[in-house]
């Protein structure tokens, strides 16, 4: 079971009960904000001797009265004094031995070491892409989108003109009414076949445009050769 004792802030003399679990740690006073170490009662200044107070002298009569010490807090609250996280308590990077930025930090800010993957990022010297290189890299995707739009426009014209094109064609079986067509080549079926063909072409074209314009919108990196 943890034992408690009373400590006082060296700045504002605020007293509070703390447990022996705080020994050796630096704490921050909640009232004035002063950071000071927690020591055992025997390590502090020696206690005053008991007995009658000494007789006042001429010098002590003119001295100012001692500051009033606040009464210790009766309600023990371990959160009133919280340990301060400094460079001594933060974990160290296993690669460069520098202190991490926080207790929950994953990447070392000094060397870039990843404590979970246990790897370091590769440092590469590359040339910055120019505007012309970026444009030439995105140009195929832009042309692909224009072709996709052109296919939709073509299908809109095809929908309205297919019936005129089928009149007196080799696919017409008997003149109507109703007009019949051989091998399921009616205008409606031609529209369906044409729509399926456009959808089949749209899938790879859309994937290519998405990857080039969204995921990999910068040209490949060009490493600087070491001299």
Overall description:
The chain is α+β, with helices and mostly antiparallel strands and 227 residues long. It is built from three helices and seven strands, in the order ββββαβαββα. The protein has a domain at 131-215. It is 31% helix and 10% strand. Strands 4-3-5 form a three-stranded antiparallel β-sheet, with no helix packed on it. The radius of gyration is 42 Å and the shape is elongated. 4% of the residues are buried.
Name some characteristics of this structure.
elongated, 3 helices, three-stranded antiparallel β-sheet, two-stranded antiparallel ribbon
- Give the integer mean of the pLDDT values: 78
Q: How is the biggest beta sheet arranged?
A: 3 strands, antiparallel
* Distance separating the two termini: 67 Å
Number of strands: 7
Question: What oligomeric state best describes the polypeptide chains here?
Answer: single chain
What is the helix/strand order?
EEEEHEHEEH
* Annotation field: number of helices: 3
**Structural category:** alpha+beta
User: Which strand order spans the largest sheet, edge to edge or round the barrel?
Assistant: 4-3-5
Binned, the helix content reads: 25-40%
**Roughly what fraction of the amino acids lie in strands?**
5-15%
């Amino acid at each position: 079971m943890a034992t408690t004792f009373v400590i006082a802030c060296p700045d504002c003399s605020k007293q509070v009960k703390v447990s022996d679990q705080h020994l050796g740690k630096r704490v921050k006073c909640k009232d004035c904000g002063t950071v000071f170490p927690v020591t055992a009662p025997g390590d502090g200044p020696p206690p005053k001797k008991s007995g009658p107070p000494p007789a006042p002298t001429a010098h002590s009569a003119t001295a100012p009265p001692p500051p009033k010490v606040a009464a210790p807090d009766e309600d023990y609250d371990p959160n009133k004094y919280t340990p301060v996280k400094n460079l001594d308590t933060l974990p160290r990077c296993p690669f460069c031995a520098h202190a991490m930025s926080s207790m929950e930090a994953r990447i070392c800010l000094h060397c870039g070491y990843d404590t979970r993957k246990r790897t370091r990022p590769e440092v590469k010297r590359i040339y910055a892409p120019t505007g012309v290189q970026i444009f030439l890299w995105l140009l195929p995707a832009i042309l692909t989108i224009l072709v996709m739009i052109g296919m939709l426009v073509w299908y809109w014209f095809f929908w309205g003109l297919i019936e005129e094109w089928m009149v007196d064609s080799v696919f017409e079986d008997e003149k109507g009414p109703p007009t019949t067509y051989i091998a399921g080549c009616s205008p409606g079926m031609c529209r369906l076949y044409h729509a399926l063909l456009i959808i089949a072409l749209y899938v790879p074209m859309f994937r290519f445009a998405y990857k080039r314009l969204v995921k990999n919108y910068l040209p490949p990196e060009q490493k600087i050769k070491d001299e």
